[in-house]
Each structure stands twice: as structure tokens, then as C-alpha cells.
């Protein structure tokens, strides 16, 4: 029982806390944008299933918290079908019903009678709110706590590795990777792990000399403390820094914003690169994760943050900082996912609006419904694939054994 409670506190609670914050901000993005355009809203919900909290405000909006905190939604007045985008016949039916019950002109408060650009902004408000959350977190961290910076110094070179064959030597300092300047050793790792079987150009300081080295990472199975057992590119370098080389740089508020934009760009760039490599057959997709993988990652982050310093106060601060940083990364991921042009996601609705803007009429409801079913099937397949990856990486039986130990 104690083991189960420990696993629950380590894995499930941090995951749910972070996910709930990110989802709430996402839905608030939709909600606040809709309110700015005076759109009538029926419900704002976080979580699914039976309500554990429910209240209706003076504007008639039902605020609801479900017992299963794995998502959320905003229900706009007048939703006619599962796609949330009525066709021309559906719009006319809705207009007649509104006029009959609320009077002429009342339809102007309904989302589907708003201009396309307003509807598009309402739909995009969720993902943009996720990016704004990530920006706020990164800006706060970089301006208050600072960003760690340490030279990417080669502490060891594995015998027979691609790095050894390419000519790396101990105490080399990597200054550029594929022409990009390196501020921290983590940037080298990020470039290498997604470059299996692809040559990488390194610029190295060796004493007073500048040396160019080309090494090709090989795909290797590794036990990552956060991601589990995954395959990634490795070249056989152990990177580190001398004690006097490690520093934490604090940025001014303006510079921190720029650094935050750069961080979000790096996350999105890495995501696009990984997806592109999957489609070209250079990655097998085993780094995709679902809820199980995210829960494991949050648990690993929790353990690492607490283990850094035995002092309870310092450990708590480390934990809060680490989980906040994790929330920013997850927020970028959810914002990106929702912008994919898949029906049922925000990007799918934007795709329907783009058609409406070009064709001057909504897409036929039957086509929208078919798209919805295809999109749902695609999401289900993606979730099954991600869950299978998680089970493979987690060693499910070992994980469950730990829960009941």
C-alpha cells in the first residue's frame, strides 16, 4: 500500500497537476477570445465524467469540473453537430430557432454567425494560449532564475565509436554544430540524438586551434531516465564542463522574451525534424509518447528534482521549477498538436474555415461528419501507437509490480 501511494504521488499527481494547468489555459484561450467577440457560451469544462464542481455564473455559463482530469472543452451556444461547424442548411435551421425563441438579431451572439476571421481566431485561441503560457514561463525562468550555460567539453571518447573514428579528442570544446553556435552541452545532445545515420558537422576548439570534424551518429538503444528505453543517435562522446566553466545567465525581461521565443522555436523545430525523419524512414517513431509516457516523464523529473538537494526547502523549489519548465514544454506540444489539420482538432476546424473563406459557403455537413470520423480514427491510431511505445519503454509488468509492492 505504501509502495502504491508512493508511485501515485511520484507519477500520477505531478502529471495530472501539469496537464490540468496546460489544458485549462488552452480552454481559457478559446473562452476569452470568444468573450472578446461577444459570443454566447453554454459551458466551460475541465475534465470529463460526473461533475465534482458545477456552477452557473450571471452570464449563463456553466463552469464544470469533471472527475476525470484528462481534457476539457468550451461549448458554444448553438452547437448543432459533432463537428461544431454547421453547413448552410444547419445555419438556416439554427437561425430560425434562435429568432423564434430569442427574437430578431439574437443570432449575432452565436459563434456560427460571426465573421470567419473571428471564428478562426476563437478556434486558434486555444493553441495560441498554450504558446503564450510557454512564453510566460520561459521568460520568467530566464529572467529570474537564468539559463544554465556550460561549454560542451569532451570529457571522454569511447574507443571505436564514431567520435573516435572522426578524430575527437579529450578536452575538445564543441563551439558549433552544423553551423549553429553552442551555448550549452544540451544543444549538442539535442542535435545528435535526432541525426542517426546523418553526418553532423562539428566545429571544435582544440587548444588554440579550430578544428572541423564530421561524425555520423549511429542508432543506439539507451535507457533514458525520462523517456524510458528508446533508440537515438549516439557518437560516443561524454560531455561535461570544468567546475569553473559552469554558470547561469540571467536575462533582462526583453532579452528573456527573445530567449523564450528561441526556446519555443527549438522545441517546434525538433518536433518538425523528428516527424520529417519518420516520414522519410530515418526514425521509427519510438519516441512518441502518450499519457503513460508523460506520467513516467513527470515522475522521473519529480524524482530528479527532489534528489538534487537533500534540504527540503531547496528540493521543493527545485521541484516547482522543474515541473513549471516541464509544463512549458508540454504546453508547446499540446498547442502544436491541436494545430494539426485533423478534423476534431482545432487545426481541422481552421481547415474547414479556410474552405469556407475560399468557397464562400460552409463545407457540406456530411463531408464534415465523414472528416470527423476519419480524424477520430487517426487520433485513436496515434494514441494506440503512442501507448504501445509507452508500454514497450516502461516494461508494463515491472511498472505494475511497483504499484502493488
Q: How many alpha or pi helices?
A: 11
Strand content: 15-25%
Q: What is the assembly state of the chains in this entry?
A: single chain
* Contiguous runs where pLDDT drops below 50 for at least 5 residues: 1-5, 396-405
Major sheet summary line: 6 strands, antiparallel
Helicity range: 40-55%
Estimate the global geometry from the Cα principal axes.
Answer: elongated
Cα separation of the termini: 7 Å
Total strand count, please?
12
Mean pLDDT level? 81
Radius of gyration: 25 Å
SS-based structural class? alpha+beta
Taken in chain order, the helices and strands follow as HEEHHEEHEEHEEEEEEHHHHHH
Detailed description of the structure:
The structure is a single chain. The protein is α+β, with helices and mostly antiparallel strands. The strands form four sheets. Strands 4, 5, 6, 7, 8 and 11 form a six-stranded antiparallel beta sheet that branches. A two-stranded antiparallel sheet has the order 1-2. A two-stranded antiparallel ribbon has the order 3-12. It has helices at about 1-35, 90-100, 115-145, 160-165, 185-195, 255-280, 290-305, 310-340, 345-360, 365-395, 395-405, and strands at about 40-55, 60-75, 145-150, 150-155, 175, 180, 200-205, 210-215, 220-225, 230-235, 235-240, 245-250. A hairpin with a 2-residue loop joins strand 7 (about 200-205) and strand 8 (about 210-215). About 55% of the residues lie in helices and about 20% in strands. It is elongated.
Amino acid at each position: 500500500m505504501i509502495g502504491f501511494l508512493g508511485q501515485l504521488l511520484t507519477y500520477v499527481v505531478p502529471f495530472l497537476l501539469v496537464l490540468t494547468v496546460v489544458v485549462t489555459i488552452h480552454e481559457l484561450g478559446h473562452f476569452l477570445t470568444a468573450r472578446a467577440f461577444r459570443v454566447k457560451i453554454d459551458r466551460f469544462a475541465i475534465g470529463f465524467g460526473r461533475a465534482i464542481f458545477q456552477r452557473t455564473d450571471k452570464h449563463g455559463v456553466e463552469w464544470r469540473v469533471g472527475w476525470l482530469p484528462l481534457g476539457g472543452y468550451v461549448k458554444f451556444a448553438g452547437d448543432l453537430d459533432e463537428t461544431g461547424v454547421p453547413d448552410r442548411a444547419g445555419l438556416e435551421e439554427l437561425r430560425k430557432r434562435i429568432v423564434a425563441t430569442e427574437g430578431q438579431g439574437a443570432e449575432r451572439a452565436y459563434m456560427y454567425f460571426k465573421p470567419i476571421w473571428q471564428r478562426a481566431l476563437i478556434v486558434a485561441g486555444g493553441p495560441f494560449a498554450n504558446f503564450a503560457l510557454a512564453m510566460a514561463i520561459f521568460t520568467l525562468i530566464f529572467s529570474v532564475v537564468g539559463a544554465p550555460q556550460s561549454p560542451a567539453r569532451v570529457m571522454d571518447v569511447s574507443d571505436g565509436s564514431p567520435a573516435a573514428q572522426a578524430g575527437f579528442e579529450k578536452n575538445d570544446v564543441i563551439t558549433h554544430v552544423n553551423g549553429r553556435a553552442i551555448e550549452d552541452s544540451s544543444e549538442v545532445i539535442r542535435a545528435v540524438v535526432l541525426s542517426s545515420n546523418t553526418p553532423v558537422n562539428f566545429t571544435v576548439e582544440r587548444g588554440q586551434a579550430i578544428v572541423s570534424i564530421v561524425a555520423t551518429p549511429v542508432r543506439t538503444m539507451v535507457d533514458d531516465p525520462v523517456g524510458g528505453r528508446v533508440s537515438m543517435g549516439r557518437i560516443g562522446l561524454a560531455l561535461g564542463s570544468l567546475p569553473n566553466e559552469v554558470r547561469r545567465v540571467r536575462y533582462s525581461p526583453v532579452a528573456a522574451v527573445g530567449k523564450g521565443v528561441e526556446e519555443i522555436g527549438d522545441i517546434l523545430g525538433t518536433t518538425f525534424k523528428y516527424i520529417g525523419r519518420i516520414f522519410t524512414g530515418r526514425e521509427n517513431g519510438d519516441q512518441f509518447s502518450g499519457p503513460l509516457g508523460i506520467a513516467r516523464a513527470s515522475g522521473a523529473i519529480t524524482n530528479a528534482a527532489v534528489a538534487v538537494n537533500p534540504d527540503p526547502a531547496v528540493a521543493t523549489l527545485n521541484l516547482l521549477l522543474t515541473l513549471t519548465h516541464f509544463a512549458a514544454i508540454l504546453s508547446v506540444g499540446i498547442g502544436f498538436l491541436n494545430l494539426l489539420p485533423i478534423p476534431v482538432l482545432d487545426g481541422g476546424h481552421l481547415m474547414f474555415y479556410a474552405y469556407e473563406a475560399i468557397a464562400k459557403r460552409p463545407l457540406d455537413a456530411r463531408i464534415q461528419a465523414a472528416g470527423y470520423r476519419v480524424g477520430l480514427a487517426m487520433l485513436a491510431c496515434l494514441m494506440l501507437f503512442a501507448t504501445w511505445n509507452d508500454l514497450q519503454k516502461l516494461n508494463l509488468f515491472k511498472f505494475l509490480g511497483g504499484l502493488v509492492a
